[in-house]
Automatic annotation (TrEMBL):
PANTHER family: FE(2+)/MN(2+) TRANSPORTER PCL1. It is a multi-pass membrane protein. GO terms for biological process: intracellular manganese ion homeostasis. One of its GO terms (cellular component) is vacuolar membrane. This is Vacuolar iron transporter. InterPro entries: Ccc1_fam. Its main location: membrane. It comes from the Eukaryota.
Amino acid sequence: MGPKQSLEVEESNNIDYSGRAQWVRAAVLGANDGLVSVASLMMGVGAIKEDVSAMLLAGFAGLVAGACSMAIGEFVSVYTQYDIEKAQIKRKREADNNNNNKGLSVDDEEAEREKLPNPFQAALASALAFSVGALVPLIAAVFIRNRKIRLGIVAAVASLALLAFGVVGAVLGKTPVGMSCFRVLIGGWMAMAITFYLTKLIGSSGL
């Protein structure tokens, strides 16, 4: 192994997977939420409605509402974190000044501020991740006219996408692939099944 290869191996071993896990978690969870929420909503509507347009309209409404909800929630959460960390930098500077310590230089403090989370970027990323996941069942159902086939296709495509999300999250976060896929797949199946059967039950009761 040459010097260049040794350097590449060393850099690979020094990757901070705990830091990477934050954005991996946000992206995978956002896409997974979009997929499971919209697929379950479409399965519920499809349990009592023959018309494909009703199923697609419900899925689209779920995509828009979910993306907006995710963006607002992430913005508020990250902005709170931003305020806390910004206040911490200010307290540290004041404490250093009171103790006549050198404290952070102007450049160091600017670097610390640049590390602060961006609420707008977080909100946009969360909304986009949710939308990507939500588009999967919508695209799968758009050209299928038969209700039973359409429901089967949505469930099958959602299952494959869940497995893909599980693999991506496990590989990027360096966690066991099998367990990651198992968790997201079982969770997605449970959400779709519960929504389907409860909606069918309520619909058949005439409520």
